[in-house]
Amino acid sequence: MRASFEDAVDRIIDEGVYFVLLAGDLFHSRDVDAETLDVAESQLSRLKDENVEVIAVEGNHDAGLYREELSWMEYLHKKNLLTLLAADFDGDSVFRPPALDDEEVPGYVNCEGVRVFGVQYLGQRFTERIPRILEGIESVNDGTEPKLTVLLAHFGVSGQIPGALGVPVNKARKLAKSVDYVALGHFHRRFEMGSIHNPGSLEAHSRRQAEWERGFYFLDVAPEKGFLVAHESSRDRPYCSVRFDVGSSDTPSELKPDFESSLEKRKRDFSQPPVVSLTLEGDLGFSREELNLNWFENMTEDMLGALHVVVNDATESTAVSPLLEELESEGAEISSGQGSLDRDKLEGAVFERIAADDSRYSGKSEEVAGAMSLAKRMLLTGEEPTSVAEELKSKRRDFSPTGSEEGKE
């Protein structure tokens, strides 16, 4: 990730831009190590030395686990390496004005005739906060009207990535009508909807993401036309997918030389160290405890010279067969139209069985299974645990009989 970030900064400086909009997730994890922080500080310092202002909001990966903690983005703000923006929904004014000699985080900033409002990651609460965001923008702009207005925010839009939760399209469009440009972060794939622009991440973080358009935008102010927008693809590391079927081996000792042989055939595919997504698939003929995933990761790194290896265990144990037969005998639909196992349907069937075994949810196992699947999707798409808990509490109240103690927290 360091190389793609440095390359983006190089291109920004060469282009001679006035300011940079960073829509969250500067970091991929809250647990930032010293080397990662050093890279962030050094690259932001390069921009500062060139008089390029960086305006940012926090993403879900940037924020501290607890609100009272100083986040890494707040730290960089206090170091004057970027200007962090955040909306304040507890006060009278959603967007706090910028002030000189003030380390507190403002809600908006004016730069080169452009007013930028910032809204941090809010999870599922973002949609319900849209009316206050609109009121806040209108209130500030009624005082002094800028040439152009930008909303810098960290949220996704429904329908852009299958299975990923986001703000409904009609709500996002309503929000966009209040400004000239919406600069988004959160989803790692590029998409545009009118004045809404999401550039995608600089780096791919999975095999699927490697196929997506990603990068950043250059914006020019055009008289009477708002912004002229050009997307720049990021220059990131080669990303490859390696699949290996374990079904031909009955023991780990048979499996290892077969795997090494398959990697040997892939060596010539790479002119530089790749990021590898390794998927193990097929029917596992021995105990899962004997499947050493660390060995596969280390062997792939050694033989392919990989920078990073992500191991996905998609193998199926022969011990699962009785469960599949049992579910099918109960009438559960767990197969795809082509006759193969549908993992989403299997997940739903298993969740429904778990719910049916709980007497509190008698007759509502299907709804409970849906809530369990929703919680899983929310967590996989980076929703905060508190947001997931709030959603589950709401669902639980729906499932429990009215007025019963079971529905109370």
Automatic annotation (TrEMBL):
Instruction: Give the region (Disordered) as residue ranges.
Output: 381-409
Give the Basic and acidic residues compositional bias ranges: 390-409
What are the TM regions of this chain, as residue ranges? none
Keyword check for RNA-binding, yes or no: no
Question: Which Gene3D superfamilies does this UniProt record tie to the protein?
Answer: 3.60.21.10
Q: Which UniProt keywords apply?
A: Exonuclease, Hydrolase, Nuclease
Calcineurin-like phosphoesterase domain: which residues? 4-189
Q: Name one GO molecular function term.
A: exonuclease activity
What's one Pfam family here? Metallophos
Q: What is this protein called?
A: Calcineurin-like phosphoesterase domain-containing protein
